[in-house]
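## Example pair
The file below holds two records. Each record gives the amino-acid sequence first, followed by its structure token line.
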Amino acid sequence: MSANLSAAILFALGCGSGAIAQSFEQTPALSLDHAAIQYFERPLTDPVARLQRRLETGETKLEFQAGRRGYLESVLKQLDVNVDSQLLVFSKTSFQGVLVSPAKPRAIYFNDRVAVGVVQDGDVLELSSLDPQQGVAFYTLDVRPTAQPRFERRDICLQCHQNISTLGVPGLITRSVFTSPSGMPAEHSGAIVTDHRTPLADRWGGWYVGGTSGAHRGNTIVPDRASLEASTRLTPQASDVVALLTLEHQTRMTNLISRIGWDTRIAIAEKQFDQFESRLDSEIDEIVAYMLFVDEAPMEKPIRVVSSFTTTFPERGPRVKKSRSLRDVDLTTRLFRYPLSYMIYSEPFDSMPARARERLYRKLYDVLTGKDTNPKFARLSPEDRRNIREILIDTKPELPGYWRQ
């Protein structure tokens, strides 16, 4: 291993007994080539990779529809992505951005594991797919009909999808940016990477937003940031606000799971886990706080919905006998009725190294039982904590035994 790589790993791990814990955004991007990672070399089992193998063996096939639909409908069906998850973004912020504008927005469809991007008159479908070990992998599918359609892995996507915004691992990003009438980010636009902590007033610049209440940046074009008074409001289109809220939460949650997994694997491979433990505790604190929505931006007004997403999304996860689910939405003061991330059911969560996952379960248990009295968890009511514990005990068989005592 090179000296530069060793230095980067030691910096990321906070080497030394006197090291100060740093946030993910303060640590360098992790090496894709490290022996514990081998991002491009190791076989993948993400949803798109699995679909590609089914295509190669003839187990399934993609149906092509003439016109703009092409392979889209068949791809969504094969990847179990609902059409009502549709989001529309009109800022030129993808590698096919030259074709994107307010008149021709890019459509995004997603579930917990995969997202599919469609650009009108584009050459390819764009896909991001979450692997249990390797994090997010990126693919394209040629839109032209062929006897053997093939998903091609694209490393060019990492130019934007591995940086401090993705916590240094290949990951997902949602941005809010002031957008000109052409779809270009306005001069000095001050793009914001958004998640559930971002105030709603700062979200969704460059996106169509349907059904929301309250101030936000969506459905708006401006000449530049200095000319907000000259902004133009666009007519909302079929881009549901609850789907946007869900995707924003999911992007950072996905990146947190990947980063902790990669950090732990590297520390174990480098035989530096003892030095890494304090850093891991800090990372666990951060992911548990995010999972429990302790810094979620409040909703000033109840959210209005315009699609069936609020019905179909809760149907996609486990539900307890009392008809409670972590996917149940609230939409009056917060996104979810029971504030714990539904991503706890994901395969990548369960595939985190045991040393990290065990500490995460212990931290979460201590918070939900009141043993951890850190005031940052004060917004969780006793009823919230009890409901979350009961839901997990009934729906998460992998929980450590002490949860059920």
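Second record, same layout:
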Amino acid sequence: MGKTRVLVVDDSVVMRRIISEAIACEAVEVVGTAANGRIALQKIEQVHPDVVTLDIEMPEMDGLDVLKRLRETHPSLRVIVFSSLTESAAEVTLKALASGAADYDTKPTSAGGATDAVRAVRESLLPKLIALATSSKRRPVASASALKATDPIATRPPASALKAADPSGAPRARVSGFPRIHRPVDIVAIGASTGGPNALADVFRDLPKLAVPIVVSQHMPPMFTRMLAERLNAASACEVREAIDGDVLAPGLALIAPGDFHMLLRRDGVRVVVSLGHGLPENSVRPSVDPMLRSAVEVYGAGILTVILTGMGQDGLRGCEVVHSAGGQILAQDEATSVVWGMPGFVVRAGLADAVVPVGQVAFEIDRRVLRCRTGDGTAPNPPWSPP
């Protein structure tokens, strides 16, 4: 496989230089730069990049307009958008992801010098470029939400208007293997990274209000996770919000780990509550899926249903090993609908997944597995599991 060809698009000459210097290596070639969206569209036709790094706020044609054009002309071209760590930038970044961007990165702060900026961009951006280019050469973009002409979260009907899938009559998801069900599902724990915001939008759009709580660890920085929770909540039958320390888990409530915090679960009498912590990053990320899963197993034992969605790296693998050993269930998103089949791919190759499903079937499969072992009123037929 040859070098990954990258086009750098930013209206700042300083940022173009920083990004170009940061990513140039034996595996990546910067084939061009552009100062605005119009020039970028022309350069794409000339240099045929594998990946584009795209600034959002630019004169003449901004990043969102570029993404709109690329959906029509180059739907499989991978784009990483650049944004700052501000509330308005987080909102625009989520719109960009919904409009077709495969991933995002945050611009380095001005606190450090040029050397620090180059190092920060290299450490964060370079692995994403290589992972996206590799997956792009292996197959075209398959996420339906990434190809929507409009924001897939803002324009979809609320999940409350959708009927829950009938386990006896609805089309069955294509799964590998059979679930090892030893006890009812008491909690759903979801992990995601690259491509996760759109995958989560697909899941929560179709998911009915469940009789169990949901916890989510998505690799995103502060402010981004709150914005994500708000956008998911607007289109879901479940209540979705960013977790706060001491939150009590409840049926139909989905809590998203806030950026820069690990989300752990613990018992408090008969309740299960959230503990947020600044522990060391795991798998180079915080929040991390692994500590969330370990703590969920300590509380719920085999009553956990884990879902590993699209993402780069192998966060969630060790946690899934614990879930599997405890007798819990594990779903993994399939390769065809994953932006990057890293996290779910590691779980599948380790033989831990009870089912491998396309993202459009994940909500149905969650609902089916929660319903099949619960009584008609949604309560567990057996008392909740408690650790010895």
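Notes on the second record: Confidence is low (pLDDT under 50) at residues 140-179, 376-388. The two ends are 52 Å apart (CA to CA).
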